[in-house]
Design brief:
single chain, 5-stranded antiparallel beta sheet, 4-stranded parallel beta sheet, flat, alpha/beta, 341 residues
Length: 341
């Protein structure tokens, strides 16, 4: 038999009341902790959204600045192609883009200088080199964030008469005798090479470049009578005929095989070779370069001369005036015999 006294009953109720207080405290603490975790998660999510937005605006400003660089570079290239020489004014301006703007300026870094090119497809040639710098600032219209990009590059004007052969369209070569070409060769187009003379050869001693493809044989058919070959980077002759087959651009592995065989002295469009632009005024014909300057032919190389001999008379350019020096050059023994050109 269990007897519960009043005192025991009071103690039992008190214990129950004490336990209920602990449960309430723990529940409140859990709610506080969950609330803090939720607030932290919301703040983290908000920070990530802000960071993502900043990155998006920064990227927007970057691409706006990059577009300014490209526009200025394209304007410089167009100026060279249109006039055959450097621009008289340097590209500068502002562009309005979607949610962004770009502002760009360009300038020439000092005077141009004549030097030998040490890289690229024109390596080894002398060129009049001018360095340009373009600065472009891209601005996001969303948060006014800015990105500044700077680009420096060189433009080389290469005298065309450094080439032994310069052809402005497809070149077909089919000699029947030994033919040795000892200077540089460039073709704005495809090259079709073969030698039709038995036991003879077509040999290129210097670098050969073309903006199209290099083929053995003519489009109408190939002749195996004579050899065709190039000298490699070590000065050793290497024939286009390898293992009984002619190696040219029709080979699926042309780039790799040509690189190994000639070491870079033979390059076409597979190597990134592009057309070379002649220094002609807009709409000028290449033949005008070798025609007389009379009649306003601004493309004539006669305009670049300081001494010329025409129809038996010699002239020296002093400032902008041509002076007849035939008599003095004849007396000095510089001119002898028939000087007619």
């Amino acid at each position: 038999m269990i007897i519960i006294t009043k005192d025991c009953e009071m103690k039992f109720i008190k214990q129950i009341n004490n336990s209920g207080g602990s449960v309430t405290f723990i529940a409140v603490m859990m709610m506080v902790m969950l609330t803090m975790i939720g607030v932290a998660a919301l703040k983290l999510a908000n920070d990530e959204v802000t960071i993502a937005g900043n990155q998006m605006n920064e990227t927007l400003a970057f691409y706006a600045a990059e577009s300014g660089l490209e526009k200025a570079a394209a304007a410089l290239q167009t100026a060279y192609e249109a006039s055959g020489g450097p621009p008289t004014t340097f590209p500068a301006g502002n562009e309005n883009l979607t949610d962004a703007t770009s502002a760009y300026v360009s300038s020439a870094d000092g005077a141009s200088e004549m030097r030998k090119l040490t890289q690229g497809t024109l390596i080894g040639l002398n060129g009049l080199v001018q360095t340009y710098t373009i600065k472009s600032i891209g601005t996001s219209l969303i948060d006014a964030g800015q990105v500044t990009l700077t680009q420096s590059f060189e433009v080389a004007l290469v005298p065309i008469y450094q080439f032994a052969v310069y052809f402005n369209e497809d070149l077909w070569s089919q000699p029947i005798f030994d033919l040795d070409i000892t200077g540089r060769v460039h073709v704005n187009g495809d090259m079709y090479l073969q030698n039709s003379g038995p036991g003879t050869g077509l040999t290129f001693h210097d670098r050969v470049t073309c903006s199209g493809n290099i083929y053995h044989g003519l489009p109408s058919g190939s002749s195996d009578a004579g050899d065709v070959g190039f000298y490699d980077k070590n000065g050793i002759y290497q024939s286009m005929k390898q293992d009984g087959q002619w190696l040219d651009a029709s080979d699926s592995d042309w780039y790799t095989k040509a690189s190994v065989l000639w070491g870079g002295t033979v390059q076409d469009q597979a190597f990134g070779q592009e057309e070379l632009t002649l220094p002609l005024a807009a709409g000028g014909e290449p033949h005008k370069m070798i025609e007389r300057a009379a009649g306003g032919n601004s493309d004539s190389y006669e305009n670049k001369a300081t001494l010329k001999i025409i129809d038996g008379s010699a002239y020296v350019k002093v400032g902008s005036v041509w002076q007849d020096v035939t008599a003095s050059m004849t007396t000095a023994g510089i001119l002898t015999g028939d000087t007619s050109v």
